[in-house]
């Protein structure tokens, strides 16, 4: 019984990872250069049935306007992905300030 529950949990995690990888592939197809990080409950393995897939996209080709950037990232999303976007400069500045603490344990896709 426990092994069946574990098998189902692993299958659910793999499905979420596959959705995250597919989103990352769409980002790279559209933007070219991009780093994509999976963070949050899916990265930690503590997700539930209602969890979204938290991703951070870092690319020099993201729209500069925050609303346009949000709409662009959401436009690539047919599923449960919730993506944030930063340019490499914004990423470096935030890292230097310690503002990206929530990326601890993140997986780069």
Largest sheet: 4 strands, mixed
SSE pattern, N- to C-terminal: HEHEHEHE
- Calculate the mean pLDDT score and round it: 92
Q: Share of helix among residues?
A: 40-55%
Shape: globular
Distance between the termini: 32 Å
Question: Total number of β-strand segments?
Answer: 4
Work out the strand percent.
Answer: 15-25%
- Radius of gyration in whole Å, from Cα? 15 Å
Alpha-beta content class: alpha+beta
Strand order of the largest sheet: 3-2-1-4
Low-confidence stretches: none
* Total helical segments: 4
Layout of helices and strands:
Layout: H1 2-31, E1 35-39, H2 41-44, E2 53-58, H3 66-75, E3 81-86, H4 88-97, E4 107-108
Parallel strand pairs: 2-3
Antiparallel strand pairs: 1-2, 1-4
């Amino acid at each position: 019984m426990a092994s069946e529950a574990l098998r189902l949990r692993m299958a659910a995690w793999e499905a979420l990872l596959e959705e995250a990888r597919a989103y990352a592939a769409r980002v790279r197809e559209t933007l070219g250069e991009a780093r994509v990080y999976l963070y949050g409950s899916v990265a930690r393995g503590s997700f539930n049935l209602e969890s979204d897939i938290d991703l951070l996209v870092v690319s020099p080709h993201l729209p500069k306007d925050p609303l346009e950037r949000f709409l662009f990232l959401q436009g690539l999303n047919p599923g449960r992905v919730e993506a944030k976007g930063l340019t490499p400069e914004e990423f470096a500045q935030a890292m230097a300030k310690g503002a990206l603490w929530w990326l601890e344990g993140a997986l780069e896709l």
